[in-house]
């Protein structure tokens, strides 16, 4: 029994199951498909702005009631164990799934399939200093998610994590055909919505592409010519209404907040009617997070929805301008400063002032060491090296292990 068990609070979260979401599904999904079609067209048209043209190179098992599954409200981080403070240890029982047997890993992330030959990068487990992350009990997670809706919102890093969670859980599903994308869509880089349904368990794991979390529109009239589009920093993305009625909501944002994807494409910031030409990216990011925080505080029912914000994913470029990088065979021994990100710091600052509890999944420091975990040239575009995105299986699986730890508490650890 690790010290972790004793210190985690096992107060049961009132799992509020049984809203009639699926009965509304048919008309909602028809309307929604139409919205997506319009949305896709708009994002296509906006392709010239905000870097759309520039795709990155690429419940606790109730201790007192073992028959009922619900979410735990453990935050994983207690006085005696901070799950984010630890190190990588070799564990040959990893990886957790075979990407070639999971239809939801996009080819660009399946490094083994794309020719990567070294395999050590698949074998690392995250070991917090004062506790262990229990091995994921897939059957228990599947049961805990029954009748629920898990929603990922963010950029391609969020999509990777979405793919990872689906594949992880599919290892526990015998009839693979019973798991399918609700609209029969293929995974593509620009797609605004993907929803994978685990029909035997009546839950969905959804992904909404919203790289900046806020609305992106054509520039208003009477602005300088270089302004082609604007991000409305005070208006959460218009697909945000789809995120409300979920049970688990996992956000991220960060990779698109760079000059090249913003000003470089004529995309500037707007607050109200006013275009803010001189505003820095750091300031804009903070305003967006405050917009996001007010939205969460006013729209999300914390009794129903568990909210997470996953922090910034470090990249490992040798020279980003030249798109040069070397994927290493082993993790770095030093974080080389990549364990700090101003974006992650802003997430903490904003979340600390919110009413609805939000769990910050602070993957920045642990991921800083993983220069071995990127897709490199083993993506769907082998001519370009990519030290931003990650192989699957791989590092995003570990992010999900931590999310699962927060959702389920550490029942397994307690029984070890
Ligand atoms: C986690 O929960 C414990 C006790 O429930 C609390 O003392 C601690 O501050 C929380 N940590 C975070 C990061 O929220
Ligand atoms: C993954 O599955 C594929 C197809 O079933 C198989 O060919 C391959 O050897 C497996 N890879 C590993 C690493 O087990
Ligand atoms: C599936 O889940 C929804 C809630 O998400 C619930 O309303 C519905 O009754 C469930 N269906 C079945 C067959 O359990
Ligand atoms: C990357 O390469 C460019 C072009 O050679 C050079 O100007 C720049 O200084 C390099 N950046 C770094 C961080 O080395
Ligand atoms: C890193 O990659 C570059 C090409 O991108 C190559 O020239 C160089 O030798 C590599 N360095 C190491 C240490 O492998």
Automatic annotation (TrEMBL):
Bilayer-crossing regions? 31-55
Q: Which residues form the Trichome birefringence-like C-terminal domain?
A: 133-404
> Which family does the entry's similarity section mention?
Belongs to the PC-esterase family. TBL subfamily.
Q: What is its main location?
A: membrane
Q: What is this protein called?
A: Trichome birefringence-like N-terminal domain-containing protein
Transmembrane helix is among the record's keywords: yes
Q: Which InterPro entries match?
A: TBL, TBL_C, TBL_N
Q: Give yes or no: UniProt keyword Cytoplasm.
A: no
Query: What Pfam family is a match for this entry?
Result: PC-Esterase
Residues spanning the signal sequence: none
- Tell where it localizes: Membrane
Taxonomically, which superkingdom?
A: Eukaryota
Instruction: Supply the source organism's classification.
Output: Eukaryota, Viridiplantae, Streptophyta, Embryophyta, Tracheophyta
Protein's membrane topology: Single-pass membrane protein
| UniProt domain Trichome birefringence-like N-terminal: residue ranges | 80-132
Keywords from UniProt, A to Z, are: Membrane, Signal-anchor, Transmembrane, Transmembrane helix
């Amino acid at each position: 029994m690790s010290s972790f068990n004793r210190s985690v609070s096992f107060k049961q979260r009132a799992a509020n199951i049984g809203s009639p979401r699926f009965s509304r599904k048919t008309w909602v999904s028809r309307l929604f498909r139409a919205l997506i079609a319009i949305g896709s067209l708009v994002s296509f048209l906006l392709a010239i702005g905000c870097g759309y043209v520039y795709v990155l190179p690429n419940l606790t098992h109730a201790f007192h009631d073992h028959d009922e599954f619900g979410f735990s409200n453990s935050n994983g981080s207690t006085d005696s164990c901070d799950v984010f403070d630890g190190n990588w240890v070799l564990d040959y029982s990893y990886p957790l799934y075979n990407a070639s047997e999971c239809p939801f890993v996009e080819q660009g992330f399946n490094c083994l399939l794309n020719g990567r030959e070294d395999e050590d990068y698949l074998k690392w487990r995250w070991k917090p200093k004062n506790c262990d992350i229990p091995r994921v009990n897939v059957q228990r997670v599947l049961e805990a998610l029954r009748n629920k809706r898990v929603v990922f919102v963010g950029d391609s890093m969020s999509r990777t994590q979405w793919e990872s969670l689906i594949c992880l859980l599919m290892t526990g599903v015998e009839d693979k055909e019973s798991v399918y994308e609700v609209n029969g869509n293929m995974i593509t880089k620009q797609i605004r919505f993907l929803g994978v349904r685990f029909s035997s368990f009546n839950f969905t794991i959804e992904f909404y592409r919203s790289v900046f979390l806020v609305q992106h529109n054509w520039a208003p009239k009477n602005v300088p010519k270089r302004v082609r589009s604007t991000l409305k920093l005070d208006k959460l993305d218009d697909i945000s209404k789809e995120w409300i009625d979920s049970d688990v909501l996992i956000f991220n944002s960060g990779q698109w907040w760079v000059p090249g994807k913003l000003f470089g494409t004529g995309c500037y910031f707007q607050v109200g009617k006013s275009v803010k030409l001189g505003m820095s990216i750091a300031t804009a990011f903070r305003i967006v997070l405050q917009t996001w925080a007010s939205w969460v505080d006013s729209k999300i029912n914390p009794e129903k929805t568990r909210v997470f914000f996953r922090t910034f994913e470090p990249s490992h470029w040798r020279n980003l301008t030249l798109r040069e990088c070397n994927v290493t065979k082993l993790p770095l021994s030093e974080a080389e400063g990549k364990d700090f990100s101003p974006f992650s710091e802003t997430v903490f600052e904003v979340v600390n002032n919110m009413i609805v509890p939000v769990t910050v999944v602070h993957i920045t420091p642990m991921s800083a060491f993983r220069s071995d975990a990127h897709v490199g040239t083993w993506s769907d575009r082998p001519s370009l090296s990519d030290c931003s995105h990650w192989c699957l299986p791989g590092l995003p699986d570990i992010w999900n292990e931590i999310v699962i730890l927060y959702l389920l508490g550490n029942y397994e650890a307690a029984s070890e």
